[in-house]
């Protein structure tokens, strides 16, 4: 499981002209799921991202987490995070999980994050053609892979 975490001033998801999700200050989490991902990957990533100290404290030092600030999170599925560009110019997505595997894991990730944060986490729509708009704060963008534990 891979995520790209972006600290944002605001972020939203629009589908066919309708805004389906939005947040103010917090984290935009792009989530890519592999065919061999498990609940263990979910628990590790949810704990990691919720405690990641990437928000500034009163001294402008990145020392606060999503949990510390009770900030918002927006989760968007993104199978392209598992693109392989090893051969040729067209990325291969063979490592990305098929919907029958990915959807339940995506839903579990969101539910686990909601349970830890104690509030609703807005999301995109799995498999939809989405327009994701964000105002990256910093910019701060971090990639985390549950298989590498980094």
Topology overview:
Layout: E1 2-15, E2 18-23, E3 26-32, H1 39-51, E4 55-56, E5 62-64, H2 66-69, E6 72-77, H3 99-117, E7 131-145
Assign the CATH architecture: 3-Layer(bba) Sandwich
Q: What form results from the Cα inertia axes?
A: globular
- Return the CATH topology: D-tyrosyl-trna(Tyr) Deacylase, Chain: A
Which CATH class applies here? Answer: Alpha Beta
Which regions contain 5 or more consecutive residues with pLDDT less than 50?
Answer: none
CATH homologous superfamily annotation: D-tyrosyl-tRNA(Tyr) deacylase
Q: What amount of the residues lies in strands?
A: 35-45%
End-to-end gap: 11 Å
Structural write-up:
The chain has 150 residues and is α+β, with helices and mostly antiparallel strands. It has a single domain (2-145), classed as D-tyrosyl-tRNA(Tyr) deacylase (D-tyrosyl-trna(Tyr) Deacylase, Chain: A), CATH 3.50.80. It is built from three helices and seven strands. The protein has helices at 39-51, 66-69, 99-117; strands at residues 2-15, 18-23, 26-32, 55-56, 62-64, 72-77, 131-145. Strands 1, 2, 3, 6 and 7 form a five-stranded mixed beta sheet that branches. A two-stranded antiparallel sheet has the order 4-5. The longest helix is centred in the C-terminal third of the chain and has 19 residues, at 99-117. The relative contact order is 0.29.
